[in-house]
Design goal:
binds 6-O-phosphono-alpha-D-glucopyranose; globular; six-stranded parallel beta sheet
Length: 451
C-alpha cells in the first residue's frame, strides 16, 4: 500500500537560523509567499518532511550541530555550488526568463561561465532528488516547489519510480519566445525535468498554458493560492501591529494612503509605481497635501548587484518625488526598506488604495491580503501581469504595468471612489482572495496525486 507520507522540497525552508557572537543559534521564520503558504498548510500535516537548502553559514552550522527542527531537513550544499545554483542560475537566469526581465541588448550571455553555473544547478537539483529518494517511504507523495528545483521531478522519478511526484511553479511561466532564449539543451533539460512530475501545478491558467506551449505535453493543473482570512486577521490584530498602526497614523495623520508592500524585486515595478504617483500629483494637483504613498520593500536577493542597484534607484526616485512636491507639513512618499511584517500589516489596515503593479508575477499575495485586512475598505489598483489578475480583475482597477499615465489615472479614480462602492468591491475582493486558502491549496495538490 502506498504510504501516506508527504514530503515537500523547496529551496527555502520554513525557518532560518542566526548565529550570535557567543555561538548561540536563534531561529526565525523564512520569507516570501511560498514559505507563508506552505508553512500554514504543513502545520496541518504532522508527518510531513520539508527538505530545504541551508541558506547561510548559520543554517550550515545548525546542520553540523544536528539541531534541525522536527519535520525539517536542511541540505548542507557546498556554498560555492549553492551560490552558482541559487544566485547564478535560479535567480539570474530562470527568474529573469519567467518574468521577462532581461535587458536584451546586453543580456543574457550564455558562455563558458554560464555552463559552469548550470552544472552547479544540475548538481544542486541532484542533491535534493537524492535526499528525497533516501527519505521517502514506498509510494509517498512528494511536492516539489518552484524554479529552483525544476530538474528534481525527472531526477527523482529515475531514482524512485514508485513515488507520486507533483511540482508547483510559484512564478509565471515564460512565454515561448522568452523561453526560446535559453540554450536548446538547457531548455530541453528544464522541460524534461519538469515532465518527470505526475502533476505540474501553476497559479493561473495563463502560466499553465505557457508551459504547454513550450513542452507540447504534460499534466498541468491550476491551483490559485489564496489567503486564510482568519489567520491573517488574527496576525494583523496583534498588539505589535496595533503599535505600528498608531506610529504610522501619527506620521500620516488623516491623509489618504496609497500602500504598496513588496520584496525589493525588479519584477514588482516599484519605479513605475513611483513615476505614476508623481504623475498623479502633477496631473491632479488637488491631491497634493491630501495623500501619502507608503512604499515598503523588504530586502531580498541583495547578493545580486542588479537588485542592490534597483533598491538604490527606488530610494532615489522616492527622494526626488519628495524634493519636488514635499512641503514642511507634507512628505508625499514614505519609503521603508526593512523586513518589518508588523509594519506591513499595519499599512494594510490603513490602506485606502493598494498599488500592485508588477510587470509579471506568479500570483502576488499582497493583492489578496490587503482587501482581507483593510479596515475602511481599499481600492486595489492591479496589474494585468499579476497572477491575481485572473481572479480579482472584476473588482480591481486594472492597469497595464508599463503604462504610467494609465496607472496615475487609476490611482486618481481609486482615491476618488465613493465609500460605498469601495466597500462593496473590497468585500468581493476579499471573498475571491480567500477562495483557496493554503491548507486547501495544499490538499488539492495532494488529491491530484491520488487520482
Ligand atoms: C518568490 C519565489 C519563492 C521565493 C520567494 C522569496 O515568491 O517564487 O520561491 O522563496 O520569491 O525569494 P527568495 O529568493 O528570498 O527565496
Amino acid at each position: 500500500m502506498a504510504s501516506s507520507q508527504v514530503l515537500v522540497a523547496a529551496n527555502r525552508g520554513p525557518l532560518s537560523y542566526s548565529l550570535d557572537t557567543d555561538g548561540t543559534l536563534g531561529t526565525r521564520r523564512g520569507g516570501g509567499g511560498l514559505v507563508s503558504g506552505l508553512s500554514a498548510a504543513l502545520a496541518e500535516q504532522p508527518e510531513a518532511l520539508w527538505i530545504c537548502a541551508a541558506l547561510s553559514e548559520a543554517d550550515r552550522e545548525a546542520v553540523r550541530r544536528g539541531v534541525a527542527e522536527p519535520g525539517v531537513r536542511m541540505l548542507d550544499i557546498d556554498p560555492t555550488m549553492y551560490d552558482d545554483a541559487y544566485n547564478g542560475i535560479a535567480n539570474s537566469v530562470l527568474w529573469f526568463t519567467h518574468h521577462h526581465l532581461y535587458d536584451i541588448p546586453r543580456e543574457p550571455v550564455f558562455d563558458a561561465d554560464f555552463r559552469r553555473r548550470w552544472a552547479s544547478y544540475v548538481a544542486y537539483n541532484r542533491a535534493f532528488a537524492e535526499a528525497l529518494a533516501e527519505e521517502a517511504a514506498p509510494g509517498a507523495r512528494v511536492l516539489v516547489q518552484d524554479y529552483h528545483l525544476a530538474l528534481v521531478p525527472g531526477a527523482l522519478r529515475a531514482l524512485r519510480p514508485d513515488l507520486r511526484i507533483a511540482h508547483f511553479t510559484h512564478t509565471p511561466w515564460a512565454a515561448k519566445p522568452f523561453l526560446d532564449v535559453l540554450p536548446d539543451d538547457v531548455r530541453e533539460q528544464l522541460l524534461d525535468g519538469m515532465l518527470g512530475a505526475d502533476v505540474l501545478g501553476f497559479h493561473t491558467q495563463a502560466w499553465a498554458t505557457s508551459f504547454l506551449d513550450a513542452a507540447g505535453r504534460g499534466n498541468v493543473a491550476v491551483f490559485p493560492l489564496g489567503v486564510d482570512a482568519q489567520e491573517l486577521r488574527a496576525l494583523a490584530h496583534r498588539p505589535e501591529v496595533d503599535d505600528k498602526l498608531a506610529q504610522l497614523r501619527a506620521e500620516v495623520g488623516d491623509l489618504k494612503t496609497i500602500v504598496r508592500v513588496d520584496r525589493t524585486e525588479l519584477s514588482k515595478n516599484v519605479l513605475r509605481g513611483l513615476l505614476a504617483y508623481r504623475e498623479l500629483l502633477t496631473a491632479h494637483p488637488e491631491w497634493r497635501g491630501r495623500v501619502v504613498h507608503l512604499a515598503s520593500a523588504y530586502p531580498s536577493r541583495q547578493d545580486l548587484k542588479v537588485y542592490r542597484d534597483y533598491t538604490q534607484s527606488v530610494r532615489e526616485l522616492a527622494a526626488a518625488v519628495n524634493a519636488e512636491f514635499g512641503t514642511e507639513q507634507w512628505q508625499p512618499v514614505l519609503v521603508s526598506v526593512q523586513d518589518d511584517f508588523a509594519r506591513s500589516l499595519a499599512a494594510y489596515r490603513m490602506a485606502d488604495v493598494a498599488l500592485v503593479n508588477p510587470v509579471r508575477d506568479g500570483m502576488n499575495l499582497v493583492a489578496k491580503e490587503v482587501p482581507v485586512v483593510s479596515e475602511a475598505g481599499c481600492v486595489l489598483v492591479l496589474s494585468t501581469g499579476a497572477g491575481a489578475y485572473e481572479e480579482l480583475r472584476g473588482d480591481a482597477l486594472t492597469v497595464n504595468p508599463y503604462d504610467v499615465t494609465q496607472t496615475a489615472e487609476a490611482l486618481h479614480a481609486a482615491l476618488a471612489m465613493p465609500d460605498p462602492e469601495r466597500a462593496e468591491r473590497t468585500k468581493r475582493l476579499a471573498a475571491a482572495a480567500t477562495a483557496l486558502p493554503p491548507a486547501a491549496w495544499f490538499e488539492a495538490q495532494l488529491s491530484a496525486l491520488n487520482t
